[in-house]
Amino acid sequence: MAQKLSHPTYIIDSTLREGVQAAGSCLLPQHALPVARALYGLGLRHVELANPVWEPGWAQASMCIAEQLPDLEQICWCRATAKDIEAALVMSPGCIHVSFPVSQAMIEAKLHFAAVALPARIRSVLEEFSRNGQRFSVGAEDASRADPRLLADVAAVAKQMGAVRLRYADTLSQLNPASTRKGLAMLMASVPQTKEFDYEFHAHNDFGLALANSVAALEAGVRSVSSTLCGLGERAGNTATEQLLAYLELHPQVPEHWQRGTMDLSGLPELCAQVAEFSGKPLNSQAPIVGTDVFTHESGLHVDGIIKNSKLYDAMDPSRLGRSNELRPSAKAGAAALRHFASQADAVPSRRWVSFEPG
Predict the structure, then answer these.
(1) What domains appear along the chain, each with residue ranges and CATH number?
(2) Whether the model pTM is above 0.85
């Protein structure tokens, strides 16, 4: 049973960072402003951008976003290197996100020192941010494979140094909803959230559980979740922003009093189609929420049910997404569906319904 979600939640869209990294993606700095503007129109106020070290054009893209959308917080993602951090500081984003590997395997392979030395390393990197008042967050890469005691130490250092949040990253999709709740509950019991410091959950989708794990994280009490449009990201991608927003707005197990009605979802299908075009990675026609077929009915049973009452076979109100039902005549249509199509054809003589015969 879903728990009540009564706390404020922040969706951090990472399309302009994770989506840029996706294999074969063609997302470029010139795409940043239209994507950011559309996300702002949906009601989101936090976007994560690629570091200019990857491509200098991201600095200019950030400047354009800041000029046109001054109250949209831009978060510049960094590795914990001087080169990345210096490039981010030049951008002057609203927040700088510094990512550290926290599992033993990643610490040893990437940082070449013992895991026990990590909290001190993090403290030394963050000292400058603490001194100059720069707003920052800390990323715990591969948190789901980290020693829980080390992860708690990392969170404590981040909190002490003034980080606004710690990102708990399920980098290799190790979690399911139950272990997500358990791991986050343990961490939040050790290092509680405060008004100034909270946790963010960042899911990857290698086993198709990114959305479910993100929902479990919210139910556990985290205040932030990061996601990407169309689920773009490394390998199998990340939690899809459109799916997460639709869940929070429309799913029957999310209580009505929990921030319902705060998002205008009508632009989601068009936005995702645009991102698919920008990235060069086409949408599946059955992609949840935004696929072209998700409100299309052909089988006689479903067509007849929709004619009688759209709630019988629509998981959500398509009008909330700027969509409507499409009923298609086909060889799968039953007698009631065929009568409906015939009546529609009679009512509108200029419209022809195509009949499909088996075989």
Answers:
(1) 10-279 (3.20.20.70), 296-347 (no CATH)
(2) yes
